[in-house]
Amino acid sequence: MKIIKSMHNQKIGLFFLIFIYILSITVREVIPKNTMLSYIVLTFALIPICRSESSYLKSKLSNLDLVYASIFSGLMPRYLSVMALGLTGQLVLGPPRFYSFLPLVLASIIEEFYYRAKLYDELKTWVKKRNAYLITICLYSLFHIPLFDFFKLLPLLPIFLLLGILFQELRLKWGLTSSVIAHIIYNILGMFYIVSFELLSVLIIASSLIATILLVKFLA
């Protein structure tokens, strides 16, 4: 009976997460000018974590090493892509968009707790780890492509897929704290420049993310 009850609770948990995911996208499509509302919806799925899941923040690294490794992982793809984008004339530097700072930080934290912690772990109880990994990355990527501009923004999908892979690898390698820090760093650095997302820009950004993923997975 205990096993059946546990499976039933896990099933409800996964359905609840998917429902919250669909609801957050719906809110974003209905009120496209206030994307933070969709993140507020996602936070409803994170309340159980605040009560019981402190293990998410544990890491195999010391605190200082964790900070260094995480900052490096968030900084490196930006550094590589900015150099290449600047050389190819695809980069526009401008005044920092400081009004975006707090929303970007909050969005980074919410996304990591929802996708990398809660959703991935719930999926693992129903499908193989590899499938849970792929589903998490795909849902994370599609979340960033508004439906009303889906085909226009579809070329950006590879970037979000690779970002999902990078943050997922960090979470699996060094824990959720690492992916949260890297995500915040990556998003904040994006406040300082604008990119015209042509094919060359997408290829450059994707290549920088691939290089960082390989460094994290095989060298770090």
Give a concise summary.
This protein is an all-alpha fold. It has helices at residues 2-30, 36-43, 47-52, 63-87, 101-124, 129-143, 150-153, 157-174, 176-189, 199-219, and strands at residues 91-93, 193-195. The protein has one domain.
Task: Provide an overview of this structure.
This protein is mainly alpha-helical. The protein has one domain (54-219). It is 75% helix and 3% strand. The chain is built from ten helices and two strands; from the N terminus they run ααααβαααααβα. The protein has a two-stranded antiparallel ribbon with strand order 1-2. α5 (101-124) packs antiparallel against α6 and α6 crosses α8 (157-174). The chain is globular, with a radius of gyration of 18 Å. The N and C termini lie far apart (45 Å).
SSE diagram, text form:
Elements: H1 2-30, H2 36-43, H3 47-52, H4 63-87, E1 91-93, H5 101-124, H6 129-143, H7 150-153, H8 157-174, H9 176-189, E2 193-195, H10 199-219
Antiparallel strand pairs: 1-2
Average predicted confidence as pLDDT:
87
Fraction of residues in β-strands:
under 5%
Largest sheet: 2 strands, antiparallel
What are the segments in which pLDDT stays under 50 over at least 5 consecutive residues? 1-9
Structural class: mainly alpha
